[in-house]
Amino acid sequence: MVPFAGHKGYGLSLAIQALGLLAGARRRSGKVSDFGFLFIAFDPEILMPAAEFKAQLSELLQSIKDLPRQDGVDEIRIPSERSQRERSIREEQGILVQRRVYDRLMQMRDSDG
User: Fold this and answer.
1) Measured distance CA(89)–CA(82) in Å, rounded
2) Model's pTM, two decimal places?
3) Of residues 35 and 19, which shows the higher confidence score?
4) DSSP codes joined into one string, 58-70
5) Would the pLDDT of 2 be above 60?
6) For labelling, which of 29, 39, 95, 101 has a CA lying 20 to 30 Å from the CA of 48?
7) Pair 25, 18: CB distance under 8 Å
Protein backbone atom coordinates (compact mmCIF):
# COMPACT_ATOMS: atom_id res chain seq x y z
CA MET A 1 0.00 0.00 0.00
CA VAL A 2 1.39 3.39 -0.99
CA PRO A 3 0.73 6.23 1.47
CA PHE A 4 -1.46 9.09 0.36
CA ALA A 5 0.53 12.22 -0.63
CA GLY A 6 3.96 10.58 -0.65
CA HIS A 7 6.34 11.29 2.22
CA LYS A 8 4.04 13.92 3.75
CA GLY A 9 1.15 11.47 3.74
CA TYR A 10 3.39 8.87 5.33
CA GLY A 11 4.30 11.28 8.13
CA LEU A 12 0.68 12.23 8.69
CA SER A 13 -0.39 8.59 8.70
CA LEU A 14 2.31 7.67 11.20
CA ALA A 15 1.38 10.57 13.48
CA ILE A 16 -2.29 9.57 13.43
CA GLN A 17 -1.44 5.94 14.17
CA ALA A 18 0.81 7.01 17.05
CA LEU A 19 -2.05 9.06 18.49
CA GLY A 20 -4.23 5.97 18.13
CA LEU A 21 -1.83 4.12 20.43
CA LEU A 22 -2.52 6.77 23.07
CA ALA A 23 -6.21 6.08 22.62
CA GLY A 24 -5.89 2.36 23.26
CA ALA A 25 -5.26 0.85 19.83
CA ARG A 26 -2.83 -2.07 20.01
CA ARG A 27 -0.63 -3.73 17.42
CA ARG A 28 -0.11 -7.46 17.60
CA SER A 29 1.65 -9.59 14.99
CA GLY A 30 1.88 -6.59 12.70
CA LYS A 31 -1.89 -6.10 12.56
CA VAL A 32 -4.17 -3.73 14.37
CA SER A 33 -6.22 -5.86 16.73
CA ASP A 34 -7.80 -3.29 19.02
CA PHE A 35 -9.21 0.05 18.07
CA GLY A 36 -8.85 3.22 20.07
CA PHE A 37 -10.76 6.43 19.71
CA LEU A 38 -8.94 9.68 20.32
CA PHE A 39 -10.71 13.01 20.41
CA ILE A 40 -8.70 16.18 20.50
CA ALA A 41 -10.42 19.45 21.30
CA PHE A 42 -8.92 22.84 21.90
CA ASP A 43 -10.04 26.42 21.90
CA PRO A 44 -8.78 28.10 18.69
CA GLU A 45 -8.66 31.41 20.54
CA ILE A 46 -5.59 30.10 22.34
CA LEU A 47 -3.78 30.60 19.04
CA MET A 48 -5.61 33.55 17.46
CA PRO A 49 -8.81 35.58 17.84
CA ALA A 50 -11.91 33.66 16.76
CA ALA A 51 -12.89 36.26 14.16
CA GLU A 52 -9.47 36.03 12.52
CA PHE A 53 -9.61 32.23 12.50
CA LYS A 54 -13.08 32.24 10.95
CA ALA A 55 -11.99 34.74 8.30
CA GLN A 56 -8.88 32.73 7.42
CA LEU A 57 -10.83 29.47 7.36
CA SER A 58 -13.47 30.99 5.08
CA GLU A 59 -10.72 32.21 2.77
CA LEU A 60 -9.09 28.77 2.72
CA LEU A 61 -12.35 26.98 1.97
CA GLN A 62 -13.23 29.46 -0.77
CA SER A 63 -9.81 29.01 -2.37
CA ILE A 64 -10.46 25.26 -2.48
CA LYS A 65 -13.91 25.74 -4.00
CA ASP A 66 -12.45 28.11 -6.62
CA LEU A 67 -9.97 25.52 -7.94
CA PRO A 68 -10.42 24.40 -11.56
CA ARG A 69 -12.79 21.45 -11.83
CA GLN A 70 -12.68 18.38 -14.01
CA ASP A 71 -15.17 18.07 -16.83
CA GLY A 72 -18.57 17.06 -15.51
CA VAL A 73 -17.91 18.33 -11.99
CA ASP A 74 -20.31 21.11 -11.06
CA GLU A 75 -18.66 22.12 -7.82
CA ILE A 76 -16.00 21.18 -5.32
CA ARG A 77 -17.64 20.36 -2.02
CA ILE A 78 -16.07 20.68 1.38
CA PRO A 79 -16.52 17.65 3.70
CA SER A 80 -19.99 17.72 5.33
CA GLU A 81 -21.26 20.43 2.97
CA ARG A 82 -23.66 18.05 1.22
CA SER A 83 -25.07 16.72 4.49
CA GLN A 84 -25.51 20.26 5.83
CA ARG A 85 -27.48 21.21 2.72
CA GLU A 86 -29.61 18.09 3.03
CA ARG A 87 -30.25 18.82 6.71
CA SER A 88 -31.47 22.32 5.87
CA ILE A 89 -33.82 20.91 3.24
CA ARG A 90 -35.14 18.25 5.64
CA GLU A 91 -35.68 20.83 8.39
CA GLU A 92 -37.72 22.93 5.97
CA GLN A 93 -39.53 20.21 4.01
CA GLY A 94 -39.55 17.31 6.46
CA ILE A 95 -38.27 13.78 6.05
CA LEU A 96 -39.73 11.65 3.28
CA VAL A 97 -40.97 8.31 4.61
CA GLN A 98 -42.69 5.54 2.69
CA ARG A 99 -46.37 5.19 3.58
CA ARG A 100 -45.95 1.60 4.81
CA VAL A 101 -43.11 2.66 7.12
CA TYR A 102 -45.19 5.54 8.46
CA ASP A 103 -48.19 3.26 9.01
CA ARG A 104 -46.04 0.73 10.86
CA LEU A 105 -44.55 3.45 13.08
CA MET A 106 -48.03 4.71 13.93
CA GLN A 107 -49.13 1.15 14.66
CA MET A 108 -46.17 0.68 17.01
CA ARG A 109 -46.91 4.01 18.69
CA ASP A 110 -50.53 3.09 19.28
CA SER A 111 -49.92 -0.47 20.48
CA ASP A 112 -49.98 -1.30 24.17
CA GLY A 113 -46.80 -3.35 24.06
Assistant:
1) 11
2) 0.56
3) 19
4) HHHHHHHHTS---
5) no
6) 39
7) no
